[in-house]
Amino acid sequence: MNKGTTGFLKGIGTGMAMGIVASVAGTMVYQNNKKTFRKTAKKAVKTVTGLMDDMQSMMH
Q: From CA 26, how far away is CA 23, in angstroms rounded?
């Protein structure tokens, strides 16, 4: 394999590992404090949605 392909595969592997870690951590937090987690998640979704709307309006 050439150098570029190896780096790409390392990046994919690192991304998958970080995704798994984030998933496990999120599951643990959710199990410990469901009400607060849901409230925070709703705020995060609203923020991201607003950000996407702002970006979309800037593109037009």
A: 5
